[in-house]
Amino acid sequence: MSTFATESKLNRFRSCSSKTGLIYFGFSGGTSGGIPGVLFFFYPDFSIHHYNPRIDMNKNEKKRKELSYYHLYLQKHLQENRFEQAGDASFIETRADLAATAYEQARREGYPIEGAQELAMQTLLKGLHHSRYAILCEVITNEFSYEIPETQQEALSKKLLPLVDSVFSIYDLSDDHFAQSLDYDLLYSELTGAVVLYLAEYGV
């Protein structure tokens, strides 16, 4: 058995068996998207990936942790902002999986951790940046801080939400850039007026 090494532009170490003609390349890894120690065996006409159960287990564990993080983050976001999807386990699981996949794909494409995470969060929260409850809370906090004590603002927001539901019906809150649009200003004004009417008739 004889072994020889050559340099290449990819800094790969190549060994060749003179008896079998089998060639394999060992990769050292590099970016977090690389997998240290994986061997790819090459024959003249085809290649076979050498299965390494330990590496596959590590990859699965990493994916599981990513899914858990995105799942918990999204679940908390939906609950705190009272999105209707807060109780939809299937929706949360699917969106978390998409986010984890987006992160892994970005890392494989060479994105830094921060950039990959940004893309993953965009995927996770797509269409979920603006909730009816959060916008109503913003109106009450900003416009009625003197009329409504801070300790009562959250309770009043929950009480008013179903009463102003029709106000939201003509606006597309799934637009991720809704807060920068003219429609947001119009909605904000309508909600302010609705709260004024409610307070005038029922008080705090």
Structural write-up:
With 204 residues, the chain is α+β, with helices and mostly antiparallel strands. It contains 7 helices and 4 strands; from the N terminus they run E-E-E-E-H-H-H-H-H-H-H. The protein has a 4-stranded antiparallel β-sheet, with no helix packed on it. Residues 1-51 have low confidence and may be disordered.
Lateral arrangement of strands in the main beta sheet: 1-2-3-4
Q: What's the total count of β strands?
A: 4
Helical fraction equals 40-55%
- Helical run tally: 7
Taken from the alpha-carbon principal axes, the silhouette is elongated
Order of helices and strands: EEEEHHHHHHH
Mean pLDDT: 78
Work out the strand percent. 5-15%
In whole angstroms, the N-to-C terminal distance is: 88 Å
**Category by helix and strand content:** alpha+beta
Q: Main β-sheet: number of strands, strand sense, barrel status? A: 4 strands, antiparallel
Q: Which residues sit in consecutive blocks of at least 5 with pLDDT less than 50?
A: 1-51
Rg, alpha carbons: 27 Å
